[in-house]
Amino acid sequence: MDIIIDISNTVLETDRLILRAWKESDLNDFYEYASTPGLGEMAGFSPHKSIDISKSVLQSFILHKNEFAVVEKLSNKVIGSVGLQESWANNDSPYSNFKMKNIGYVLSKPYWGKGLMPEAVKSVITFCFKNYDLEALTCGHIISNNQSKRVIEKCGFTYVKQTEYFDSCLQMNFSGMRYILFKNQFLFPHSV
């Protein structure tokens, strides 16, 4: 069961990151990573071919209020995003009665392999379970995206199934792996 989550006045802080609503002033940082070949394809979008495309997507993030900008504290640079969308499991009968959202994320390539995305995702999981009393969160990755798979495993999600789907942005068929995390399975950080 989908619910509305508005992150526009929310700021989450971890050891190395700040997660907050997107601002128009984030455009150059966003375009820098969103235009990188090989990055968007792993997250379900084509690399942005112009800053105007990034501007349009950024305006959508601001309008829909469901996408966190991931800011590295050290540089104050936006290096990725974590979004909360409608869950794939809303139409899956074993799960359709749960209050839940789907978590999607992307991280600029120079920041891969440093544990930043699990740090960001765990922060958003805690926010969703504590502030919106969600019962479950879902996520997924294309079968070849081992980086996302590692993030999902580090955050405690349980594998549910493999699916085949058509990605309208990329105009391609993919095999995807689907996961779920129930609130009663999540180990809340001690600092929360």
Mean pLDDT: 91
End-to-end Cα distance, whole Å, is 26 Å
Indicate the low-confidence ranges by residue numbers.
none
Summed up, the helix count is 5
Give the structural class: alpha+beta
Range of helix content: 25-40%
CATH architecture label: 3-Layer(aba) Sandwich
Question: How large a portion of the residues is in β-strands, by DSSP E?
Answer: 25-35%
Largest sheet: 8 strands, mixed
* Count of the domains: 1
Tell me the CATH superfamily. Gcn5-related N-acetyltransferase (GNAT)
Q: Oligomeric status of the shown chains?
A: single chain
**How do the helices and strands follow one another from N- to C-terminus?**
EEHHHEEEHEHEE
Give the CATH class.
Alpha Beta
Q: What's the alpha carbon Rg, rounded to whole Å?
A: 16 Å
Shape: globular
Total number of beta strands: 8
CATH fold group: Aminopeptidase
Spatial strand arrangement across the major sheet:
1-2-3-4-5-6-8-7
Task: Describe how the helices and strands are arranged.
Elements: E1 11-13, E2 17-21, H1 27-34, H2 40-43, H3 51-64, E3 67-72, E4 77-85, E5 100-107, H4 116-131, E6 136-142, H5 146-154, E7 158-167, E8 172-182
Parallel strand pairs: 5-6
Antiparallel strand pairs: 1-2, 2-3, 3-4, 4-5, 6-8, 7-8
